[in-house]
């Protein structure tokens, strides 16, 4: 926790700081702005259409660090209960009018936001890369997806239909849907803007209003989004963004009786805490997208000369994209025994050549996360796993000033039952083990408390369906990974969550439905 003199941060100073950051659309400009400041950048909340610091006298401030250098990047308020309640009250007031706007009007607002985001694509990518640790190239991909989140739902709502039918010639029934209310939208630190906008876009498209809370580790792009929403002319209070940690700000937000629904992405223990805190509020809509420990099954036929390069490329990208900090990453690789040795050798060579720290692999998101991943790699060493690539990273200095860099790590000979193959490490670490046949492959794939995603690499068309349909995962990718069409159901089985989002599934989250029965004469 840092200190900050709120009196220095007048509304004028906040606006000036926002404009200075807004002018930095290259890494050089952003880094020289950071270096030139005598006080850290201060990120305010975005509430009722304004950038403002919380007014609670008990507000504390959180320091947020740049993962690539380990240096202080910015300071943000940890909003307390009274400031969270104030934001909710603005969202409730805005709901009265926003929920009654036409689809065409909401669509125009979403389109305007996506256009403005497109105009400022590089600005968002630069700050996301500095704040989260990802490469600039990866950050650009994620800003593009954030743009699509708004553009997709801006058109989806114009074309959606609801069902009507005549029942036994007696009644005409139809679905009447209305916006479900005010939502708490809680997002994690791995793909900050991408996942925050995956919630905000459908929420406001379907006529709801929001109080959003990004992760305290990566609040920069949420703050910039607040500035952008203001510039885009979104009516005040439709989206409010409060900054702060989980136990204080997040917990106050999700538990509020004035919140009608929660859309959350993050770790499974946090999902359980949210469920517990809201168990008595049956009416609250709940969409929880949680952790994963996803299997990647590689059959020997996929290593045939014609597809070998593709197989290795997909397995590598599923393992190491965004430093492995994507809940969909395939971190448990299983290879059919006949191709096992060959796969381990060629995969290791490919990763060593194509996944280079700083160039194509960024830093992990925080000091705490570095220590978590390091703990698992120490466990691997203690359990005498083989490090085909990577090593136990060094302990960080007290000031962490070398940044949070962990090289891609490939482990084999992992002890049976090891936590390395059970826990979500969420970093650039994969294990590879052999399997004997299809049945064994399915058994290993499903031997997890999680059920978010799976990758299947094979050239056998019948097997694609036979195996694919037995895997306990909400998303199964065959000979591809992270192919996303925003209308498909997205979410997990088992401890990976509950509910689905995307297209009509997001509509289910953000609307209430009543079935009307009219006489059919
Ligand atoms: N998408 C995913 O699958 C993600 C998985 N994780 C997993 O969780 C592990 C721990 O990471 P954390 O940063 O602790 O993730 P987390 O699940 O605690 O954080 C996600 C979001 O939830 C908020 N939050 C935390 N406690 C809350 C509460 N009681 N009520 C409401 N909101 C709350 C956080 O402030 C953040 O905005 C990671 O190492 C990774 O294994 C983390 C982030 C994303
Ligand atoms: O919606 C997507 O395409 C990706 C989502 C990724 C996550 O939810 C995650 O990594 O947490």
UniProtKB/TrEMBL annotation:
Q: Name one GO molecular function term.
A: oxidoreductase activity, acting on the aldehyde or oxo group of donors, NAD or NADP as acceptor
Q: Tell me if Membrane is a UniProt keyword of this record.
A: no
Q: Which PROSITE patterns match?
A: ALDEHYDE_DEHYDR_CYS (PS00070), ALDEHYDE_DEHYDR_GLU (PS00687)
What keywords would UniProt list here? NAD, Oxidoreductase
Q: Which Pfam families match?
A: Aldedh
Q: Which residues form a coiled coil?
A: none
Listed InterPro entries: Ald_DH/histidinol_DH, Ald_DH_C, Ald_DH_CS_CYS, Ald_DH_CS_GLU, Ald_DH_N, Aldehyde_DH_dom
Establish whether keyword Metal-binding is in the entry.
Answer: no
> Which superkingdom heads the taxonomic lineage of this protein's source?
Eukaryota
Q: Where is the Aldehyde dehydrogenase domain?
A: 59-515
Residues annotated as catalytic: 289
Write out the similarity annotation. Answer: Belongs to the aldehyde dehydrogenase family.
PANTHER family listed in its UniProt record: 2-AMINOMUCONIC SEMIALDEHYDE DEHYDROGENASE
Kindly provide the name given to this protein in its UniProt entry.
Answer: Aldehyde dehydrogenase domain-containing protein
Naturally occurring in which organism (per UniProt)? Parachaetomium inaequale
Query: Lineage from the top down?
Result: Eukaryota, Fungi, Dikarya, Ascomycota, Pezizomycotina
């Amino acid at each position: 926790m840092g200190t900050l003199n709120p009196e220095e941060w007048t509304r004028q100073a906040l606006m000036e700081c926002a404009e200075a950051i807004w002018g930095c659309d290259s890494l050089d400009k952003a880094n020289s702005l950071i270096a030139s400041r005598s006080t850290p950048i201060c990120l305010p909340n975005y509430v009722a259409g304004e950038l403002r610091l919380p007014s609670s006298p008990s507000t504390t401030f959180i320091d947020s660090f740049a993962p690539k250098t380990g240096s202080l990047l910015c300071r943000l308020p940890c909003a307390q209960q009274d400031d969270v309640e104030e934001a909710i009250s603005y969202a409730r007031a805005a709901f009265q009018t926003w929920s009654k706007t036409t689809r065409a009007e909401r669509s125009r607002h979403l389109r305007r936001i996506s256009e403005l985001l497109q105009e400022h694509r590089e600005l968002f990518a630069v700050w996301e890369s500095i704040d989260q640790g990802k490469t600039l190239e990866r950050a650009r991909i994620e800003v593009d997806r954030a743009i699509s989140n708004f553009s997709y739902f801006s058109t989806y709502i114009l074309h959606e239909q609801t069902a009507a039918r005549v029942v036994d010639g007696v009644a005409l029934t139809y679905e009447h849907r209305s916006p479900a209310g005010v939502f708490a939208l809680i997002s994690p630190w791995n793909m900050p803007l991408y996942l925050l906008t995956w919630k905000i876009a459908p929420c406001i498209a379907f006529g709801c209003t929001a109080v959003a809370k990004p992760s305290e580790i990566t609040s920069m792009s949420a703050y910039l989004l607040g500035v952008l929403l203001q510039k885009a002319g979104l009516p005040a209070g439709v989206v409010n963004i409060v900054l702060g940690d989980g136990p204080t700000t997040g917990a106050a937000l999700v538990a509020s009786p004035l919140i009608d629904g929660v859309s959350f992405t993050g770790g499974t223990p946090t999902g359980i805490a949210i469920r517990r805190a809201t168990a008595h509020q049956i009416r609250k809509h709940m969409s929880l997208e949680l952790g994963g420990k996803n299997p990647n099954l590689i059959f020997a036929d996929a290593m045939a000369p014609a597809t070998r390069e593709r197989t290795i490329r997909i397995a590598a990208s599923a393992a190491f994209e965004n430093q492995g900090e994507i809940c969909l990453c395939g971190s448990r690789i299983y290879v059919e025994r006949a191709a096992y040795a060959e796969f381990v050798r060629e995969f290791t060579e490919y990763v060593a050549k194509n996944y280079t720290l700083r160039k194509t692999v960024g830093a992990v998101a925080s000091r705490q996360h570095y220590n978590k991943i390091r703990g698992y790699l120490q466990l691997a060493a203690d359990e005498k796993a083989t490090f085909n690539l990577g090593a136990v990273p060094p302990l960080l200095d007290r000031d962490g000033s070398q940044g949070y860099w962990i090289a891609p790590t490939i482990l084999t000979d992992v002890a049976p039952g090891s936590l390395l193959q059970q826990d979500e490490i969420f970093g650039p670490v994969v294990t590879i083990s052999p399997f004997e046949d299809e049945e064994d492959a399915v058994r290993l794939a499903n031997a997890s408390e999680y059920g978010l995603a799976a990758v299947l690499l094979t050239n056998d068309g019948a097997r694609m369906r036979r195996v694919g349909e037995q895997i306990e995962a909400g998303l199964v990718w065959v000979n591809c990974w992270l192919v996303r069409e925003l209308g498909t159901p997205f979410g997990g089985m088992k401890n990976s969550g509950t509910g689905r989002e995307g297209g009509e599934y997001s509509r289910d989250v953000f609307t209430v439905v009543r079935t009307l029965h009219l006489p059919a004469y």
